[in-house]
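Sample 1 of the test manifest.
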Amino acid sequence: MGGVSIKAGIVGGAGYTGGELLRLLLNHPQVEVAFVHSNSQAGKPVYEVHSDLLGDTDLYFTDTLQQEVDVLFLCVGHGAANKLLTEQQLKPGMKVIDLSQDFRWNESLNKEVVTASNRDFIYGLPELQREKVKSAQNIANPGCFATAIQLALLPLAQHNLILSEVHVSGITGSTGAGQSLSATSHYSWRSGNTSNYKVLNHQHLHEIRRTLQGLQEKVLPGINFVPYRGPFTRGILCTSYTHFDLSLEEVQELYSTYYSSHPFVHFSSSTPDLKQVVNTNKCILHLQKEGDYLVITSIIDNLLKGASGQAVQNMNLLFGMEETSGLKLKATSF
Amino acid sequence: MGGVSIKAGIVGGAGYTGGELLRLLLNHPQVEVAFVHSNSQAGKPVYEVHSDLLGDTDLYFTDTLQQEVDVLFLCVGHGAANKLLTEQQLKPGMKVIDLSQDFRWNESLNKEVVTASNRDFIYGLPELQREKVKSAQNIANPGCFATAIQLALLPLAQHNLILSEVHVSGITGSTGAGQSLSATSHYSWRSGNTSNYKVLNHQHLHEIRRTLQGLQEKVLPGINFVPYRGPFTRGILCTSYTHFDLSLEEVQELYSTYYSSHPFVHFSSSTPDLKQVVNTNKCILHLQKEGDYLVITSIIDNLLKGASGQAVQNMNLLFGMEETSGLKLKATSF
Amino acid sequence: MGGVSIKAGIVGGAGYTGGELLRLLLNHPQVEVAFVHSNSQAGKPVYEVHSDLLGDTDLYFTDTLQQEVDVLFLCVGHGAANKLLTEQQLKPGMKVIDLSQDFRWNESLNKEVVTASNRDFIYGLPELQREKVKSAQNIANPGCFATAIQLALLPLAQHNLILSEVHVSGITGSTGAGQSLSATSHYSWRSGNTSNYKVLNHQHLHEIRRTLQGLQEKVLPGINFVPYRGPFTRGILCTSYTHFDLSLEEVQELYSTYYSSHPFVHFSSSTPDLKQVVNTNKCILHLQKEGDYLVITSIIDNLLKGASGQAVQNMNLLFGMEETSGLKLKATSF
Amino acid sequence: MGGVSIKAGIVGGAGYTGGELLRLLLNHPQVEVAFVHSNSQAGKPVYEVHSDLLGDTDLYFTDTLQQEVDVLFLCVGHGAANKLLTEQQLKPGMKVIDLSQDFRWNESLNKEVVTASNRDFIYGLPELQREKVKSAQNIANPGCFATAIQLALLPLAQHNLILSEVHVSGITGSTGAGQSLSATSHYSWRSGNTSNYKVLNHQHLHEIRRTLQGLQEKVLPGINFVPYRGPFTRGILCTSYTHFDLSLEEVQELYSTYYSSHPFVHFSSSTPDLKQVVNTNKCILHLQKEGDYLVITSIIDNLLKGASGQAVQNMNLLFGMEETSGLKLKATSF
């Protein structure tokens, strides 16, 4: 392991996921950040935009996409990743990890691999398909809510146990909406406030259904999802429930077996709270039975396990490094 | 109206609902606060405990329960209201409005009136049974989540339209947990945090089911409720959905007809956010259809329409005053 | 009093101070809102912009400035008020209350009256010069920090007791920065964050110095002010200290005499906290002595006593109404 | 460096600073946590109390103080550290780092070394006296506000440039008040709220004055400090100003020279905001001149550079490890 060392480039480095990726990669023992691309900030020191990096790096944003990197992270908006790959010829051996939704699923939902611009993209949820990730060339990094909900349901789907509709509600922090200024990201509005949005039609349901139906042989029932905007900055907490015949002990056994080799998934025997995972790459799961309902609570940091942390986890797997390398993060806790 | 003037007493005036009631009654044009009872704070000026009332009142907390009032508000804990009425002989003509859950329902759930200590308690949800409230002697004031959820579902139950399970998620502010210090009300814990609790077994489901089954002739299906602790102080936002055959226009018609004479219920054509109602006695409802699901969003201020504001609304009705008297409140808005 | 009834118009009604003024005037017993002007929102219902007013008003924004009002409130940006009065001929008898800083002081700082467009503006701090306000035609409504700091220092200046530099620090909520979207009003930035700004050169020092030097015969020493952005929406808390020879009892006597007839200023014997005044028109003062320093803490709601509430207070005085009319507001408290 | 490895014990491991220390030491490449002592939580797994450590450690709290450690961290309350050292015989070679205020200064304020229980304590501010720290046996870890204020003023004192009173205001997060439940740490109170406390008489002024007077030959003028409770959990931001004759360029030169070899102090050319340092061990300084005042803004994370991070920094120095070892932390940023 000591010998491995790779060069990484970031496109769209001035946004939230780009900045978070930088915070991780600058401390990663086996990675050198070769360049950080940004059209809007080219020429400025990185710490002028990500001001917490003052003292940590002398990098400047560039508007030139260098080819001499082993892996390229795309932190651009939905649609822009596809455009970039179409317009720009990348060095063939370069691996790509895309954080947008452009290559997570296709319209038919029935293919595991999304091909675009002559590149085949593997859906990068290591807890679903770590081996495929390891041998992939290109990764489509999952969505944040999609990660929290899939990790709550993967073992059920694997055992053909999603037999009736699943009801999910979830709350996300403001960083999920990115850096752009908007009415619902204005402090005076969002502080002490909450609202639902995209009720029962959130776009992440596509990738969730694709994954679960891919695992489960029986036809997947409806997944109903009510997302909320929470008055906090980081994190996602989801509660999912569905009818379930087995006992709590049986389901705990299924889950702990499923996740036994996955270093970022942990089980809490008591009700978890969001800040247990904020600023870490963990997912904490909690299982309970109420009547004939199985209730699963799942929490992640939307910018880490839900975005840039998972991207680094995928990078580690792509290059044969320790899955947790650079990801043993101190939680904020408070 | 000008001639009406009543005397009110408050028991348990040092807590959150007691304080909120005081804030309302001190500005109510037809009410004089005769006394504020508190065992723990007796002898202190009211503004030492409710420090925002500095300059508004010279009242002191007392540990003597005076009988010469027209209405007595019980703002004591669950269990303590029943105990007080059992141990203390109240003047027969005195009306009682109890904010605890002691008289909201009984075990059998099949009686509309809960009788305790020779007093019959009417469930004080004016939008359910305003006429019964007007002629009542004693009022059991509804719970906060119970108010938000019932107001979302009353028109459906009235028309026998709750035909399949209802799925509700809701977020509440910290004042819902009252004034007592606890791990989950500690600022360092709750700030930027969230968690669910009492998933699928919240105690307010009793009164909700009693009400809805009382209205609807067909057997009431399951009401599933996932409550969340939100990192804010005031307010409740609930999202409820259930299968529904009629069109959006038809359901809007049902709802607007049902609430046409109720001054505190309003409809928003766009997705509402919590702060539209904070520091007011309003309930704002929003209706939408997604596939064959009807989705109802309801928002209230948990301390006002969910507690002390509704208590004043009930008082207004009990004494033949304008239903909105003393309740035209300036929203905090931000 | 019952007979008085006036018509009011608002220019710039879509912003924060305009909305807050509306919330007050719609509940004011002696005022009718004749129109609400907004260039950007003309044609829309008021409640679409100020969504908490749903159910409270059927007014629409207009782009026509009607002349048939008794008082016109200018809630437009700094500079725009002056421009409006220069370009637009107002009915001579119409009174004007301007919430911008355009007419609060002039460059020389040595005139009490600022004249613009043939209108003489009186600085509308009732606790400084209530009688002048009563007989004024046009009011320049004070700034928010300026109000909090002046109310802390007026009695000292009146008694020639500001003899050495005054050191002030103060924290303001996000609504002080208005409705416009900016990096420092983005939720993800401001939540859990703080920073200072305009250290020792805040623009409100002009009006503060003009007022204090106008009261005090001796030359006014420096006023040093460090403002902070606080992670909350409403309110201002300031701490001021200066060398002071008299005893605490003597200064308390001076202050309570000075403010004895002013209904919105109250004294707290213990350290106050901001939420005692949020959503009210109050100013709470606290006095203490530490060594030979007098320390004065002052708190107001920046949108009420610091803006729209004070504007209504001035309106009440201009028209011979009760000073507190429409301003007995329920505090948010939490 | 690779060869160094030490064993550490923590007393008072269930509190905030103890937990934060654990979060650091568990990831420190050269430290093994031998035991975590807690009287109140003995027998429980560490992750039951510090729930974000779920999956990170299998340690249990113990009520036995083991002697076989190289360094013992005391994270107990003020007074309790002194009591422990008096009552308990520690192995002579064991180094002690105390996070309480018990050994930071003595009444006379004129000794650099505080001796207690036959142990000499060195004040552990590496930016003041790194060489003394390196050769120390026992460290008194500085207070949080004391760290932020001293780092703002050290270069001035070193050059005899504190010639007139210093005026400091500062805002701290709720974790500064620790884990105990209290009225001012209740979420419903503190959310959206602020207040000052201990105005001009904060206890950290003792250690600040001792340090500055120890550096500066001329008599130290008054240090006036106004602390605020901020509605956030982590961090301290201080603004200090004093009369100053030199130019901005000259003072920048002094400061950058002073801190050139100190890895955790950084300079921002623009106004910093608190979240630049939250969850890091950094101190960011900003210098400006306004008239003849020098204004210094300093920010730290109160639990890291202001407590447990600085304790680890001191440990690194005590044992000849890299000063930054285990302290390259990912900022929370949002």
